[in-house]
């Protein structure tokens, strides 16, 4: 099976899964205008496909601050580091701040590629990282008491704190 064909099948499965999720609840105020994301092909589609398969396979793993293994749980940067090392044989820095400064390109928000790191900040301080999987969704380990999950990058919260992306594949 061709790598891009596999990636297409994976993205189609994600879209179908998205149809089964509950709609986001909005509380007061007006929602920001959605950002139209045009997915682009990753520079290394084979490695990106491996990263996506591994990351999505970890959905449901418990969050644990400082965690960096499936058995022990993950925090956000631990998840990213584990996935890229395990699936792409690419060691990455451990902290979110270091990942934000990692070598690579910074694609514009509306031209993300599957496998890009997506970064989130508050008052200029990067506090969270995830892996973009395509179609406006990313995998991440969000918070204490939660689990690794898929979320929409254009939801009201994640859209507001979005700080950029790093293309390292």
UniProtKB/TrEMBL annotation:
Residues 1-22 form the signal peptide. One of its GO terms (biological process) is proteolysis. It comes from the Bacteria. Residues 45-169 form the NlpC/P60 domain. SUPFAM superfamilies: Cysteine proteinases. Keywords: Hydrolase, Protease, Signal, Thiol protease. Pfam families: NLPC_P60. PANTHER family: MUREIN DD-ENDOPEPTIDASE MEPH-RELATED. This is NlpC/P60 domain-containing protein.
